[in-house]
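REVIEWER CHECKLIST
Item 1: Sequence provided? yes
Item 2: Single chain? yes
Item 3: Sequence as submitted:
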Amino acid sequence: MLFASALFSSAAYAQPSGDAAAPQTAASEEDGNVIVVTGSLIRRTDTETPSPVTVLSADTIQKAGITTVSDAIRTISADSAGSIGTGFQSGFSAGGSAVSLRGLGVSSTLVLIDGLRSTNFPINDDGHNAYVDLNSIPFSLVERVEVLKDGASSTYGADAIGGVVNIILKKHFTGLDGTAEGGVTARGDGARKYMALTAGIGDYQEKGWNFYVNGEYQEIGRISNRSRGFPYNTLDLSSIGGLDNNAADNSLTSAGLSAVVTRTSQTDLNNPLAGGVSTAEQAAGGDFATYQLLNPGACAGNTYSISSGSARGTGCKYDLTDRYRQLQPYQQRYSANARLSVRLSDNVEGYLTGSYSRSFVSITSNFPSAIRQTQPYGAAPALASSNPGIVLPYFVCSAGINCITAPDRRLNPNNPYATNAAADETTAAANAARLYYIFGDIPSVSERTNEVYRFTGGLNGNFGDDWNWRVEAAGAWDELKLRQQGFLNINNLLNAINTGAYNFVDPNANSQAVRNFVSPDITTPSRSSTVVVDASITKGLFELPGGKVQLAVGGQIRWDTLANRNQNAALNTYNLTTSSAFGSHRVYAGYFELAAPVFDKLEINISGRYDNYSEGFDHFSPKAGFKFTPIKQFAIRGTYSEGFRAPTFAESNPLSQFAGFVAYTPPCNFQLAHGGGGTLTNCTSGGNTYNVSYQQGRGATGNPNLQPEISRSFTLGAIVEPTRWLSLTADYYNIRKSGLVVNGPDAGRAVDAYYAAGGSAAAGCAAVAAVGAGYSCNVVDAQDPLYGAAQPRLLILNVPFVNANYQITDGIDVSATVRLNVTDNIRWTSRLDATHILRSNVVTPSGVQRYAGTLGPYDLSSGNGTPDWRGSWQNTVEIGKVALTTTGYYVGKIKAVSQDQREPTDCARGNIYTRSAPQNTNPLFCVIDDFISVDLNATVNVTDNVKVYFNVQNLFDASAPLAAAAYTSAPNYLTTWHSAGAIGRQYKAGMNFRF
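Item 4: Structure as written out by the authors:
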């Protein structure tokens, strides 16, 4: 078996030597001569099937200093665009974590626990992608992780278009095993605590039963952007030749931590939404164009003044990113798990498991709620050049309505233009105060508590002549409670303004009761569930020259439900998402697998799966593979498979809808119309809030006419072992998804059409509608108060869910493993794993969007793009009782362009960050540099039962490369690939004991 074990060690993260070298599932633990490998139902005597499988052993993961399932899986080089890390805090899935193999999205990667499904996170990523939250899986019970990378699996589910991640947990444990770990960053923040304890009784081999319980606790502290300094704490890159997008913070017409007002008119004296400046008033200037601070002394960043131009007055200087953003949220996780394994007879075994996990994430990275020249709800006043927004009325009264006639009416203490207690209605109507303000005294917090309950049970055994069978069931329920703080209730805010209850002059004087009234907590429960029953039987049929032909057949039934409730169904809260998703279905499946060792040097594997969904979808998905071994040092393998992914509930149910947001910088023609300088090809923002990067929305509802995605994929690879201590693999993959389910594949073209039209919003919206069915303007911004005749911004674009033409991706995986005994006391192990993406293209009716090596697809997940090179290299030197491990991670360069945002892919014309001259010529803004970080781990076996370890992450304190085109919520770095460089060096130390 030299060649078989060498092939297995050729996986990028192979099992360590010794007793743990051969992975075994529950079916094989009693017989070390046969094993079951992910992607196959057939027991075999080696670990290399025709399909490429990467294995991460517990030993390898621990030597890398990793303590979460999420971090372990996301080290796999095949994980690409759409991968979700907990560091991404502004999306739908903030607080969750998911893997996206081959960059095909989290919905196309199947995550299993011991070969069985779990339930999905109740909130869909990007409003429509379904995935299993990796944070819900107990790390201390992981025995190994097997990653099937050949496109689809007829064994587990044809929806595994990108591949399968199978997390194998401990089956039996006797004794006591515990780990305690603590850590902190080199800057003294982001403290980490980790504890785990497993206790088991019953020797399964001798007594025929085993029972263990496990508990785990982990806590990770916050890290602020301010603590890491430039450029991760600001949107102002002017010091290095970039734009100052803090102009949105410092503009007179922007919201400020200290309230800014300007005189305006009010058509309804009891309605704070009925304010606006007429054309005549705007032309007259004076207080209608002069802005003033209500409390200049409260400016922490000093004041500044503008004395000429369309807007004049005094404002506060500050940096919202520095003040409020955080690189890492507070996280707390704990879990409890138990397993009972019983040998019921000589031929029958059974097991039961139960688990509970709780993941709590507290995100304080959002800016506080703001009042500026526009709000998402409320009708605009009927004035020329009207600007819907909020104004402070002349009079206030206890009831807050009809204050003109109320006996207890009084001058509004927040309105500096209210000076005459005896003023008539005409005077009061002409002296309202338009308000620009950020509620700095009301923190914006999102707390997500995710609880997952999971139970599994199964029987397996054998009878007769080579019959093997199994029956397993799993049920999982995910309860998510989302608690939002800091959002403004529309009616309560208007009431507080009309009564004068909220103090805008001195916010520190507001009582907590007033703050709670204006911004009540919003708690939204959501739920998902999965129940699955799976059974199969395997039989050896007849002999061929290479061995016995084996056949396996099986069936599965699954029930899934989802209720992701709308946080803002009544539309009574400013800026709170209206996303929701609902659905339930039943899925029947039947499958088979035939393994034929044609002769000693050739193995053929054929399998197929038929799925039937209660929505009316059904499909048969075949798969075939081979492995040819002409000599023991060399083998060729290959597979062909077809896949099938039904639309998620969020994509197909008409009751489901969402609105997501991406960073967008208006083009030059728009900037020039709003006071920017330069030309149509080289422009500068001019410091106007309207011209800087803003969050642009995409809104969609479920489309019941969607059809499933159909895929085909093939792999072809070679395995080489020239010596006993060196093994190499290289595999080419090619995956094509047809009928691709996407939301707004031509969203970038629609946005370009809107701004190219110029002039009025109506002209822009007509251009949007001409792009295709389902494209329309959802929300258009208020007019620019400085340039009332110029085109307003497009805030939210309606986009359809459609079946696009197809997506195709191909590339090469390579790995190398060295196991060398340098001396009798020194052993060196080296593992290299790398993926190079050759293509990642989405074909739509309007053309081809090429994503490899770019920030595309920017609308997907965290907008972190598709690096065309990813890899890791781990080296371990064992000297007696000491083991030193270095693990290096590499992410290649990424062009700062994305074709789903703007069509050109050259930096000068397509840079998503800006179109102005310095960025056109400066490579600092055209390319996001490659990134290398190195972790160091030292382990000392103090005794046979106790070991201590010390870990340094990002040993050389490498800085994340500048990514000016990143989401503004994670400024200037990519959360998925470069978080280690933004956080910097981290230290961890721990102890493990086992008795």
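Item 5: Key structural point noted by reviewer: Residues 646 and 708 are 4 Å apart (CA to CA).
Item 6: Recommendation: ____
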